[in-house]
Amino acid sequence: MLKRFRVSNFKSLLNIEFRPVGLNLLIGPNNSGKTNLCSAIRFLGLTSYMTLAEAAKKVLGEIWNISNVYVNDRTIEFEVEAALNEGGDHLEFTYLLRLDADQKGAMSSQPLRVMEENLKVSGGRFIQTVLMENRSGIVRLLNEKRFLAGVGETFVETTSPQDATMLSRIYDMEANRRANLFKNYLESWTYFSFNPEALRSHKVADKTTLGFDGANLSKVLFMLHNEKPRVLRELILSVQSLEPKLDLFTFTTPEPGSVYLFLEDVLGNRFGTQSISEGTMRFMAMNYLILKASLSGASGEPNPLLLIEEPENGIYVGHLKPLINKIDPSGLSGQFVFTTHSPYFIDLFDNNLDGLHLIKSSKISSVLIRPDPGKIRQLLDEMPLGELHYREMLG
Question: Do 73 and 9 meet the contact criterion of CB atoms below 8 Å apart?
């Protein structure tokens, strides 16, 4: 579970600290920095298995102009504090990543380079134990198996190219079990901004996960149909609140690289995704993500962190509350971070004020505020939460 995320000098973010709970709402005016914060979190997650340039391009579409243009500083810094479980041990991880960003951009052969990287763990027999230390490509890596056995050299010294994190290159489960646990946790950080065309597409990617825009939905539901039919049935029951005639999901795979999804009624009539509303497709995708997150603990996977932009688009407000109520606010079945401009969606968080985060823009950077829940509860007697945000009374 993510306890603290700090980022400095990434786009409009200068020394921003984000402390999420299980269920979170990130609100603020346009161009205040909501998407930049989501992008920073997404970028760091991707660096656990991509090069820095690949991660930047996937998140931002470019590999330069990543640092704050109003600050004469090439250093971008990330810090993470996370709590994870491994073999019955409760482990507390701290991770630091410091990058050098070359503002020359396309003219530079390596616009992003690792300057410093440090991963520590506490819990069980570990007390602020360094698992990995990387200084400009000079690496010390703890052999955890030897450390626990108390025999032999516990650190391995090696080198690493500066175009990627050392964390992305760790794979040995015997020698680096806890480092790999943290790496896999960062890999679970996912971002979604659904696109109707992608949600309806029958073209599927080789990957087995839902794309950030909703692509691969037909494939992940087809896999659920084959591997966990009871979970798919639960999804169907949820979607029936929007489509009461729905009885089954059916699929055809007429050629490689395609999966066609149909919604079928009790009479056997089938309706393709092109005839299904955008709101229903979004509702299906979000239900799938919530169900998948709830299964992560049972499968032994780290509880994921999911960032979802403006989930309310196209969905009738009456269906939003039951959907949000399915999320475990403790975070034990995954942490969710939503962004929105809808006062009706904001109203759904009036009983979850600890998860409310307000981001505002200042002259050269964004400012993240955690509104006081006690003060807001008093104001809720006068008007709903969405109206308080509209009147700029939250902070």
Answer: yes
For the chain, the first-to-last Cα distance in angstroms comes to 27
Q: Are 170 and 117 in contact (CB under 8 A)?
A: no
Residues in Cβ contact with 114 at an 8 Å cutoff, skipping those fewer than 6 apart = 52, 97, 98, 99, 100, 134, 136, 137, 160, 162, 163, 164, 165, 166
Q: Which domains does the chain have, with CATH numbers?
A: 1-188+303-395 (3.40.50), 202-301 (no CATH)
Q: Which of 361, 355, 360, 298 is nearest to 331 (CA)?
A: 355
In the sheet with 75-86, reading across from the earlier edge strand, the strands are 16-18, 2-8, 75-86, 89-101, 112-123, 126-135, 138-142, 155-159
Q: 257, 339, 378, 383: which is closest to 24 by C-alpha?
A: 339
* Integer Cα distance of 161 and 222 in angstroms: 40
* 8 Å CB contact between 20 and 2: yes
Which pTM value belongs to this model?
A: 0.94
Helix (H) or strand (E) holding 260: strand 260-265
* Span 108-166, pLDDT tens digits: 567 899 999 999 999 999 999 999 999 999 999 999 999 999 887 799 999 999 999 99
Q: In the 8-state DSSP scheme, what is residue 223?
A: H
Q: Which residues of 257-282 are buried (b: 16+ CB within 10 A; e: fewer)?
A: eebbbbbeeeeeebeebeebebbbbb
Degrees, nearest 5: CA angle 304-307-309: 155
Render pLDDT for 287-305 as a digit per residue (tens, 0 to 9).
999 999 988 766 667 789 9
Helix (H, G, I), strand (E, B) or coil at 362: coil
